[in-house]
Design brief:
The chain is of the alpha/beta class. It contains 5 helices and 5 strands. It folds into 2 domains: 97 residues, Response regulator (Rossmann fold); 53 residues, no CATH class. Strand 1, helix 3 and strand 2 form a beta-alpha-beta unit.
């Protein structure tokens, strides 16, 4: 993002008479922190905000994307993958740079079959979309001869994981 802003600001043919700035907010993949940051930015009358890059996590992206239409503010997520965010009636100002998560099942299928991995396990951070996604992935892979024999969720933690045990 910083490189893009530097490039745009350096080229007088792109957005003439405008200068872009990057305001960084660490939302920690927490909905409450993301909402507070969004409200602060959206209601700031001294700095005009063109749009928001982020949030990265689906659980925080959904409420931000839902409220952004009331502020006519574009939201571009770099990693929120939930299929529910495809609803343009509900999230008209939401865009993303990655496909929604349901497309990954085809990638996983090709990878697992190419590697001859016919039994796999899945681990994901706790989030509401992953329960449904794992079910869809399991069903899809099963129909292709790949079996999900283990599935687990892990808590989102900023603490380093101790793998020595």
């Amino acid at each position: 993002a910083e490189m893009a802003i530097e490039w745009v600001n350096a080229d007088t043919n792109v957005l003439p008479n405008h200068e872009l700035h990057l305001l960084i907010k660490d939302t920690q993949c927490r909905t409450d922190v993301a909402m507070r940051s969004f409200i602060d930015l959206a209601t700031n009358t001294t700095i005009p905000i063109a749009g928001i890059l982020g949030p990265g996590c689906t659980d925080e992206a959904e409420p931000i994307a839902a409220i952004s239409k009331h502020f006519n503010m574009i939201i571009v997520s770099y990693s929120a993958g939930a299929a529910s965010l495809n609803n343009k009636q509900k999230y008209p100002y939401f865009f993303r740079t990655v496909p929604h998560i349901n497309y990954y099942r085809y990638v996983y299928e090709k990878l697992f079959l190419a590697m001859n991995w016919l039994q796999i396990g899945a681990i994901a951070e706790v989030g509401k979309e992953f329960t449904e996604y794992h079910r869809l992935l399991k069903d899809h892979l099963h129909s292709r001869g790949v079996y999900m024999i283990a599935r687990n969720k892990m808590m989102n933690s900023r603490d380093p994981l101790d793998l020595s045990k």
